[in-house]
Amino acid sequence: MGGCASKESSAKEPKKDDDTGKDTMVDAATLEKLEAGYNKLASSDSKSLLKKYLTKEVFDQLKTKKTSFGSTLLDCIQSGVENLDSGIGIYAPDAEAYSVFAALFDPIIEDYHKGFGRNDKHPPKNWGDVSVFGNLDPAGEFVVSTRVRCGRSLEGYPFNPCLTEEQYKEMEQKVSSTLSGLEGELKGTFYPLTGMSKDVQQKLIDDHFLFKEGDRFLQAANACRFWPSGRGIYHNENKTFLVWCNEEDHLRIISMQMGGDLGEVYRRLVTAVNEIEKRVPFSHHDRLGFLTFCPTNLGTTVRASVHIKVPKLAANKAKLEEVAAKYNLQVRGTRGEHTEAEGGIYDISNKRRMGLTEFDAVKEMYDGIAELIKIEKEL
Ligand code: ADP
Ligand code: CIR
Q: pLDDT, tens digit, for every residue of 135-149?
C-alpha cells in the first residue's frame, strides 16, 4: 500500500514533503500496483463510476501525485479495484485528496450528485422550516420505519486510512465525552465496540441500529485498521437518536423511529446536530460542504430513508428502480447498501446530497416517497 496507512502521520500536522525532494515521488512499488490496478479495472466489465472516469489520460495525470499526508491515487482507488462490483469504487484517504485527485473525483461527484459541476459551490447549511414535514403514511400501510442520518468529520483529523490507533482512541474519547453532555431526549450512553459481546453487537445490527462489521468495500479502502479500537455507538434509551463513531466516517448522527413520521425524525436530528455542533468543530470545505470519506456523502451528507413495503411496485424490481430514479431516489436492501430486500422491505432514500440544502435533500425523499405510495395505491 502506497500511502498514509503505513505512516505515523500526525492529525494536527500533516507530513510535508521536505525541501530536498525526499518523499515527493510515489515509490516504485506503489506505481507498479497502480499500473496493475488500472489494467485490471480497464479490462474488467465493472460498472463503477471509477471505471467510467479513470481514463488513461486521468490515470497518467494522477498516478505520481501525493497529498501532504502521503496518500496516493492507490489509496483512493484500491477499493474499486479490489471490488469490481462497486457502484462508485473510490474514497478520499484525507480531505486534500479531493483537490489533489480532483481530475478523478470531480466527474464522479458530478455524475453521482446529478450535475454538481467542478465550478459549482455547495450552498450553506440550511435545515429550513422543521415544521414542514408530516407523516408520510399516517395509516401505517406502507412505511415500516423512517431514518435520517448525516456524517461529520472531526476537524484536525484525516480519514480512516491515515489514522493511527492512538488517534482512533483519542477521537472516541472526544466523541463520548462530548455526547455525555446531551440532555433530554438526546441523553444516552456511549458503548465502545471494544468489549461489546457478539450477541449484543449482532442484535444491534439486526435491529438496524449499528453498522455492520467486515464491509469488504471499506476493508479494501484501508478503513478498518485497528478494528474495533476507537469504534462505538452512542444511543438514547429508546434508540431513536444514535451516533456511530469511527466506522466509515468519524461521526454518523442518526435519528430514526418506527412508522412514517418524518417530521418528528427530522426535528430530532436537527436539534441533535445543532447541539453537537455547538460543542465540537467539524471539517467543512468551501466548495464541497461537509467533508466525508466517500464522495457520495459530501455536501449535506444527508441520507433520509424509509423502510417501505410496496409489493405491487416491487413485483418488478427494475420498474421500482426506474420509478425511484425518476424522483432522484435510491433503492437499497433491508440491511442497507449492498444487501437484499427481506420480507419485501426496501430502504428508499434521497440519492444526491450535494448542490442542495439539507432541507431540500430531505424534501426530495419526502416528495418522492409520497409519489411512490400514490403509484402503489393506484396499481
Ligand atoms: P448509511 O445509512 O449510514 O449510509 P447503510 O445503508 O449501511 O448506511 O444503512 C445503515 C443501517 O441503517 C442498516 O442497518 C439499515 O438497515 C438501516 N436503515 C436505513 N434506513 C432505515 C430505515 N428507514 N429504517 C430502519 N433502518 C434503516
Ligand atoms: C461502492 O462503491 O459500491 C462502495 N464503495 C460504497 C459507495 C457508496 N456508499 C457509501 O459511501 N455510503
A: 999 999 999 999 999
